[in-house]
Amino acid sequence: MKRFAHIVYVVDGSFPAPSASLTTAAALAKSHHARLTLLLVNQVPSFSMEVHPLYQQALQQQRDELEKLANSLNLSDSVSVSLRTGKRYVEVIHAVQELNCDLVIKECEDAAWLQHLFGSDDMHLLRKCPTPVWLMKPNQVPKYRNVVAAIDLESDSLEPNQKDKQSLNQRILEIAASISLIDNANLHVINAYDVPQAGFIGLWVGESDKNEQQLYENERRAKRYALDSCLARFKQKVGEETYQYLNPRLHLVQGAAAHEIPKFAQSVNADLVVMGTLARSGIAGVLIGNTAENILYQLNCAVVTLKPEGFVSPILAPSKP
Fold first, then answer.
1. Rounded to 5°, angle at Cα 65 from 61 and 67
2. Which among 98, 116, 158, 204 is least surrounded, fewest beta carbons within 10 Å?
3. Which residue has the higher pLDDT, 230 or 286?
4. Which residues form the UspA domain (predicted)?
């Protein structure tokens, strides 16, 4: 089971009493015996303001309030604070590298002007942060009841990034299970599959309905086998007792993932969706798959996103000469 060692919680500048998201971050750190860093990022001031005594005084007061917030979490020496200056998502990613963190937790921005839940900094983190990113709703429920693990099954073992997908699926399941155990939430595992060539074959080959149905049945059998194999590996890793306690509910859904996964999340009143952001290999500059991004734009619940192993953030990548 995935154990986090160092969690970064991104604080906004208002310093309210511990929110539900911060309380969740503290509970996760405590249950995993992990360090928790409260990170606050300020915008870059002008030079004249940076050296102004009142600005320095404000920074000190800000640090004092941040430390007061940290002390209220009752995590003893396992919680610390960090103040940085710069673009928020850039500084978060640098902090992840410098502090050797393995999870970022952040409340979603107030993006009422957008049709989707996540704001600009949020999407930058989802695209570019090398560690898992957990974005929570500001008014999220104190305890999760339904956690959804969305996995990408691929029956074609010759595909170049097949091993990446298998590894990513196992990490998705581990993190979803870890969060489910904290709140004793229902764990749903979903895969959406489609046969885009079915319509073409049905158009040009006789007995179109029969042939299309056969194609979908064959694909469903292949995906069911892949799903069972994926869960068998997960069961072997976490153990029989933990697996039976989790009792994951499996869902194999026909249709495009970009449509079916958000629809399913809404149908079960999902509090959280855990998913990967694996783009097709060989496409230069693609940091997040189109399907993953389309799903994210439609979700209205909390989300944890994971990158494939070996992902290098463009923020941290060495610049080309």
1. 115
2. 158
3. 230
4. 5-136, 165-306
Residues 46 and 174: their CA atoms lie apart, in Å, by: 45
Whether 167 has a pLDDT exceeding 90, the answer reads no
Q: To the nearest whole number, what is the mean pLDDT of the chain?
A: 84
Cα–Cα distance measured from residue 279 to residue 63, given in angstroms and rounded to the nearest whole number: 39
Q: For each of the domains in the chain, give its residue range(s) and CATH number, in order of start.
A: 1-142 (3.40.50.620), 144-321 (3.40.50.12370)
- Residue 311: Cβ within 10 Å count: 16
Token representation of residue 22: 């911060």
Given a cut of 50, whether residue 268 has pLDDT beyond it is yes
- Cα–Cα nearest to 174, from 21, 34, 276, 295: 276
What's the pLDDT score for residue 272?
Answer: 96
Looking only at the bridges linking them, the beta strands covering 133-136 and 103-107 are parallel
301 within 8 A of 120, measured Cβ to Cβ: no
Structure tokens at 49: 């303001």
Contact 22, 118 (CB under 8 A): no
Strands of 43-180 (E only): list them. Answer: 79-85, 103-107, 133-136, 146-150
CA 118/CA 302 separation, integer angstroms = 10
Any long-range contacts for 14-18 (C-beta under 8 Å, 24+ apart)?
Answer: 15/65, 15/66, 15/69, 17/72, 18/69, 18/72, 18/73
Question: With pLDDT > 70 as the criterion, what percentage of the chain qualifies?
Answer: 80
Rounded-to-integer distance, Cα 82 and Cα 212, Å? 58
Residue type, 187: L
Q: Identify the pLDDT of residue 138.
A: 80
Over residues 296-305, mean pLDDT: 90
DSSP 177-193: HHHHHHHT-EEEEEEEE
DSSP annotation of 280: P
Strands 302-306 and 272-276: parallel
